[in-house]
Design brief:
It is built from 1 helix and 39 strands. The N terminus is likely disordered. It folds into 2 domains: 329 residues, Glycosyl hydrolase domain, family 43 (Tachylectin-2, Chain A, 5 Propeller); 233 residues, Jelly Rolls (Sandwich). By secondary structure, it is mainly β. Helices cover 2% and strands 42% of the residues. The longest helix has 10 residues. The chain binds 2-acetamido-2-deoxy-beta-D-glucopyranose (NAG) (8 copies). One 2-acetamido-2-deoxy-beta-D-glucopyranose binds next to loops. Belongs to the glycosyl hydrolase 43 family. InterPro entries: ConA-like_dom_sf (IPR013320), GH43_C2 (IPR041542), Glyco_hydro_43 (IPR006710), Glyco_hydro_beta-prop_sf (IPR023296), Glycosyl_Hydrlase_43 (IPR051795).
Length: 589
């Protein structure tokens, strides 16, 4: 065993050979938008490819996987959680902080392993059913069907990861529910059945709140334990400990924390929850989550994003991480290669996105639902409506029953906000017939944090003003109908949001298609606009709203479309076309 571990240390290539070429320059975040809690690996056996997984909470498909061969061009290759049968319980979670928490991705024995937790945050900390710890595996991560159903194992905690020791024993390490901790626990596990042995405390952290996100690395005859502490807010940090034995005693690094932006003025805050991997030259890298908020921590609609840094880790010594900023310098990178397989787009594409929804084609891989969708509510290019996506309304609106729980599907499909400044617009063809029916666009963070611009059928006299700002008010409500279509902005958040505004749709626009637009006009505000299709000069600002309303919690803003009967009986479909997302600018400092 001693010999084997020595050999493994050598094979791991950690002799810090510099690789070829010059040190690299790269930019954070590497995955902009809602991609928190990154876990990455380097897999020489699969064409020298790097793979990363992220948390997804209630979003579906869940647990996105990105791949790269050069650490520069990353492609979304699919999702671990891509079928309801893999984990039916995601349909039942309560609260926006529930769902899939931090996954760990590892490769062992020619298999990809993904260990994570489905958390139901509405239940007491000590209730075992709050923490549904699960294992997925796949031979081929590019093929959605290759990912197994979840195998469950018992642990009253979260942030679980697998580790294969040199003697053949397999361990799970995780963070115990923090109010009864704080501590990092470990047990032996059978990854195929989920049977676990006795849980033991192996480290209590350095005293920061909520030691979590543990990862173990074998190097130079040591077991290095990396963890996050301080909570996933402004005090977040990465700490390390090491031991000669896997179980303990772990001694803390005297230089902790190894990575944090706490108490700095950096635009990149909340840096923590890290994972380490090395490239083919044995140079070490780390990923972590970070929030582009500055220390004010008020405006960060994209939430917790994935950042990367270079790590220098000489033999027998503790690693040194370069602090996180927007422009980074690090080890030489492999030459640029854009030949990654898989369905999704490359991250950070500067190109405008224009989706046309071909008939019978699956929706693009980067589009996201909230929990499991009702597939029949989404029809690409139905007969007579080419290049459109038809949405059938759900009874539930975006807030659903109480802002926390849905209990049934919500018709809503979205993409992540991935740029500080952007415009997102769609064309809507919609003639609501039943009172309360609504379809529109939203900047959605959670069921109780969203800003919506919709077309809704309301009784005559419902408007908050006789006409849209800047338009003349003559007879907008004219005619005989008791119910007329209105345009409505409304917001929902834990912070104050503008009061709803409701305007009758101008008579000159009625019966035609409308363009609905959300624009990030600066780093703090969105504007919501509406206008008749094809007459850009008539596009009107309905509302400017602070993005503080969608800067909260664990997830990041989704930009998307919805259709709902608002609890009523309406079933009128809404036809969306010309889905355009145009990146304008990325702020990095
Ligand atoms: C979720 O919340 C709803 C409404 O508060 C409640 O009826 C339901 O029992 C909760 N479900 C779970 C699984 O906790
Ligand atoms: C997990 O715990 C429950 C109840 O304590 C028990 O019934 C179940 O068999 C355990 N599952 C495993 C895989 O050990
Ligand atoms: C961690 O803290 C617990 C509870 O305070 C204590 O029982 C345990 O001995 C500590 N373990 C280590 C490894 O420090
Ligand atoms: C930040 O500063 C506070 C107050 O001085 C201190 O308690 C805390 O440990 C610091 N955090 C880090 C990660 O350095
Ligand atoms: C190259 O990057 C590594 C990792 O950040 C650093 O340790 C090293 O000093 C850099 N080398 C040069 C020549 O700048
Ligand atoms: C962004 O725009 C809004 C609305 O025009 C304005 O109130 C706000 O002060 C602007 N913020 C910044 C940082 O310029
Ligand atoms: C959203 O749905 C809930 C429950 O169906 C309902 O109580 C609420 O009024 C709806 N919101 C709007 C704006 O209609
Ligand atoms: C929905 O339809 C049912 C049955 O026709 C009726 O009783 C109910 O009042 C309707 N609900 C609304 C909100 O219109």
């Amino acid at each position: 065993m001693f010999f084997a571990s020595l050999l493994l240390g050598l094979l791991a290539g950690v002799s810090a050979s510099p690789g070829h070429g010059r040190n690299s320059t790269f930019y954070n975040p590497i995955f902009p938008g809602f991609y928190p809690d990154p876990s990455c690996i380097y897999v020489p056996e699969r064409d020298h490819t790097f793979f990363c997984a992220s948390s997804s909470f209630n979003a579906f498909p869940g647990i996105p996987i990105h791949a790269s061969k050069d650490l520069q061009n990353w492609k979304l290759i699919g999702h671990v959680l891509n079928r309801k049968e893999q984990l039916p319980r995601l349909a039942e979670t309560n609260r926006s902080t529930s769902g899939i928490w931090a996954p760990t991705l590892r490769f062992h024995d020619d298999t990809f392993w993904l260990v994570t937790t489905l958390v139901d945050d509405d239940r007491p900390q000590e209730d075992a059913s709050r923490w549904d710890n699960i294992i997925f595996k796949a031979k081929n991560p590019y093929d959605p069907r290759s990912w197994s159903k979840a195998v469950h194992f018992n642990f009253t905690g979260y942030d679980t990861e697998p580790f294969w020791d040199e003697d053949g024993k397999v361990y799970i390490t995780g963070a115990h529910a923090w109010h009864v901790g704080p501590y990092i626990q470990q047990a032996e596990v059978d990854l195929d059945t989920g049977a676990v042995g006795e849980w033991r405390i192996i480290w209590n952290g350095t005293g920061g709140m909520a030691p979590e996100g543990p990862h173990i690395y074998r190097k130079d005859g040591w077991y290095y334990l990396l963890a996050a502490e301080g909570g996933t807010g402004i005090d977040h940090m990465v700490t390390m400990a090491r031991s000669r034995k896997i179980s303990s005693p772990y001694e803390s690094n005297p230089n902790n924390p190894v990575l944090t932006n706490a108490n700095t003025t950096s635009y990149f805050q909340t840096v923590g929850h890290s994972d380490l991997f090395h490239d083919r030259h044995g140079n070490w890298w780390a990923v972590a989550l970070s929030t582009r908020s500055g220390p004010e921590y008020l405006h960060y609609p994209m939430g917790r994003e994935t950042v990367m840094t270079a790590v220098s880790w000489p033999k027998d010594e503790w690693p040194t991480f370069t602090p996180i900023s927007g422009k980074m310098s690090g080890w030489p990178m492999p030459p640029s290669q854009k030949d990654i397989r898989g369905v999704g787009p490359y991250v950070n594409s500067p190109d405008p996105e224009h989706l046309t929804f071909p008939r019978s084609a699956p929706l693009p891989a980067h589009l996201t639902y909230w929990r499991y969708p009702n597939p029949s509510s989404y029809t690409p290019s139905p007969p007579g409506h080419p290049n459109t996506l038809r949405l059938t309304p759900s009874r539930l609106n975006l807030t659903a029953l109480n802002g926390n729980y849905a209990g049934a599907d919500q018709t809503f499909v979205s993409r992540r906000q991935q740029h500080t400044l952007f415009t997102y617009s769609v064309t809507l063809d919609y003639a609501p017939r039943t009172a309360g029916e609504e379809a529109g666009v939203t900047a959605f963070l959670t069921q109780n944090h969203h800003l919506d611009l919709g077309v809704v059928l309301l009784p005559r006299g419902s408007a908050t003003a006789p006409s849209l700002p800047g338009l003349s008010s003559k007879e907008e409500e004219g005619g005989q109908d008791l119910m007329i279509p209105h345009v409505r902005f409304r917001g929902e958040s834990y912070v104050p949001v503008p009061a709803p505004v409701v305007y009758p749709i101008p008579r000159a626009w009625r019966g035609g298609k409308l363009v609905l637009e959300i624009r990030a006009c600066n780093s703090t505000h969105f504007s919501f606009r509406v206008g008749p299709d094809g007459r850009r000069s008539e596009r009107t600002v309905v509302m400017e709203a602070s993005n503080e309303a969608v800067s909260w919690g664990f997830t990041g803003t989704l930009l998307g479309i919805y259709a709902t009967s608002n609890g009523g009986n309406g079933t009128t479909p809404a036809y969306f076309s010309d889905w355009r997302y145009t990146p304008l600018e990325q702020f990095r400092d």
